[in-house]
Amino acid sequence: FTAAQWIVGAVGATLGGLACDRLGLRLGVRRGYRLLAMAGLFLTAPFLVAGSLVQDPVLAVVLLSLSFGWTQITEAVFWTTAIAVAGEYAPAATGVMNTGGSVVGGIGAILVPTLAATLGWTVAVGSGAVFAVVGGLLWLWIRPDRRLRVA
User: C-alpha distances in angstroms, 96 versus 68, 72, 87, 139?
Assistant: First the structure.
C-alpha cells in the first residue's frame, strides 16, 4: 500500500505530460494548459475529501492515491508554463517555483498535524482540497501564451 500513491503518481505524471503536449497543440497553450491544470486540481479535491472520510483502509488508500495521481497530472503543465512565461529566465523561474513548493510543503508538515489535533484529520486533510480548488481557479488568470517582459 505504501507504493500505491507513487505508482499512481508516476502514471499520472506520464499521462499529464502526454496530455499537456496534445492539448497545447490542439487547443493552444492558453486554453490547453489551463484546461489540464484546472481539471487536475479540481479532480484532486473530491478524491482527497473522500479518502479522508472513508472508514475502509483499502478504499482510503485507493482514493488518496487517485487524488495524488490527479495532482501529478498537473506537473507537466506547471513546468512548461513556467518555462514558456519566463523564456530566458526559465532557470530562475523554475528554481523559485521549486523552492516555493518546498516551503509550502514545510509549512503543510506543521499545519496539517496542528489542524488535525484541533479540528480532526478530516478537516486537516480536507484543507488540501480547498487549496486545490483555489489553485485551479487561479489558472483563470495564468497566461502561458504570454512571455514575461523584463525591463
Answer: 23, 19, 14, 18
Q: Would you write out the chain's pLDDT as a tens digit for each of its 151 residues?
A: 889 999 999 999 999 999 999 999 999 999 999 999 999 999 999 999 999 999 999 999 999 999 999 999 999 999 999 999 999 999 999 999 999 989 998 998 999 999 999 999 999 998 999 999 999 999 999 999 998 887 6
Taking Cα atoms as reference points, which of 40, 31, 49 lies closest to residue 75?
40
As given in the structure block, the three cell numbers for residue 66 are 487517485
